[in-house]
Design goal:
The protein has a 10-stranded mixed beta sheet, with helices on one face. A 5-stranded parallel beta sheet has the order 10-13-16-19-21, with no helix packed on it. Helix 2 crosses helix 3 and helix 3 packs antiparallel against helix 4. It is built from 9 helices and 25 strands. It has about 375 residues and is an alpha/beta fold. Strand 5 and strand 6 form a beta hairpin. The protein has 3 domains: about 140 residues, Alpha-Beta Plaits (2-Layer Sandwich); about 30 residues, no CATH class; about 180 residues, 3 Solenoid (UDP N-Acetylglucosamine Acyltransferase, domain 1).
Length: about 375
């Protein structure tokens, strides 16, 4: 046994979770709620040693492993944590699990490599790491996550199989027990699992999906706003529009009412879009290219990779002063595609109201959020 204990490997990430199981199929996990979700090395090693002492066999050659937690494991882990101050958080969680222990209710999860997740528990662990800021947005492999997660009815934060509701619909209704379904989706909502920072405001819980990240000072207004999984903000932002999957918004930026940042599956050729710092997307605008710092997209226009944009010579000179890679010059104006301006700083995108042409000029607007609101 001691030989195996010495062979434990530092995990990429690990966690302890409580699971919700199916009613039709109790073996099927529908949701994993993490009490501990970490990328620290020491705690993961301690938990592996406890598993081995309890008769389990962690295999670091696997990209992920999920173990049912036994009371024997809990006791072994508590003994190993007792003399180590660095594992105090884990120890406190284990004491609570011991207090409320039920067989098949809690699991220990280890990710030994960042590969496509195979289990509901692994998907949820990665979503936690994204939402609690332990992993940068777009840094984790979520390939196939939609196929792993079941599509369920969410009732007060609890997932219920749609098949169970169909099979028991008549009886539930006769007994007056048919549930009020809040929504149907594979992903839960952010606020079902994450406690945000004190100065984060989310005025409608349905507007942020689990796996999103909201930096301190971010406000998500109701209405047309939405923040998808693996997307979010890196600093204080105003969000009144849509931040689609894999889109990242820099500090000080304002996503105006109804504005939309396209995601990897909606018109960006699979290239994730980043929005720089202090950038403004006007109401009902659409952005499908990355934008640098200090940009403005006027209300109601769409800037996509193939959008034809006119730039006057004097504007090209001003843009080039803050973008060393920008080299349009020599003619009174030129026409470029949106993709040619991707990631450039200080550009104001607008539409000529007389001829309908899309134009790019050096932005003269100073985008600042209302400090009282953030």
């Amino acid at each position: 046994m001691q030989e195996h204990i010495n062979d434990v490997k530092e995990p990429f990430a690990f966690g302890i979770c409580r699971v919700d199981r199916g009613r039709l199929n109790p073996e099927k996990v529908l949701q994993a709620t993490y009490i501990i979700a970490k990328r620290e090395a020491k705690g993961g090693i301690v938990l592996q040693k406890a598993l081995i002492s309890a008769g389990e066999t962690p295999d670091p050659a696997q990209s992920e492993q999920v173990f049912d937690i036994s009371i024997g494991f809990v006791n072994e882990a508590l003994n190993l944590c007792a003399a180590d101050d660095e594992t105090a958080e884990i120890s406190n969680a284990l004491l609570l699990i011991a207090k409320y222990f039920e067989p098949n209710l809690f699991k220990a999860v280890f990710l030994f490599a960042d590969k496509a997740p195979k289990s509901v528990e692994a998907v949820y662990l990665k979503l936690y790491l994204l939402s609690n800021g332990q992993a940068e947005l777009r840094s984790l492999d979520l390939t196939g996550a939609f196929g792993v997660l079941p599509n369920v009815a969410w009732v007060g934060g609890t997932p219920v199989e749609l098949g169970y509701l169909r099979a028991n619909e008549a009886e539930l209704k006769v007994k007056g027990e048919f549930p009020k379904i809040d929504f149907v989706d594979k992903f839960p909502r952010y606020l079902q699992h994450i406690i945000p920072a004190d100065d984060v405001r989310i005025l409608d819980g349905s507007k942020v999906r689990m796996g999103a990240r909201l930096a301190e000072g971010t406000t998500v207004m109701p209405g047309a706003s939405y923040v998808n999984f693996n997307a979010g903000t890196t600093g204080a932002c105003m969000v009144e529009g849509r931040i689609s999957s894999s889109a990242v918004v820099g500090a000080g930026s304002d996503i105006g009412g109804g504005a939309s940042i396209l995601g990897v599956l909606s018109g960006t050729s699979g290239k994730p879009v980043s929005i720089g710092r202090n950038t403004l997307l006007g109401a009902n605008s659409v952005t499908g290219i990355p934008l640098g710092d200090g940009c403005v997209v006027d209300a109601g226009i769409a800037i996509l990779e193939g959008t034809k944009i006119t730039i006057a010579a004097k504007d090209a000179e001003e843009i080039a002063k803050i973008n060393p890679n920008f080299n349009l010059s020599g003619e009174s104006f030129q026409i470029v595609k949106g993709i040619d301006l991707a990631g450039m700083h200080g550009i104001h995108f607008r539409q000529n109201s007389q001829n309908g042409q899309m134009q790019a000029a050096r932005s003269k607007k100073d985008v600042r959020l209302n400090a009282e609101l953030h």
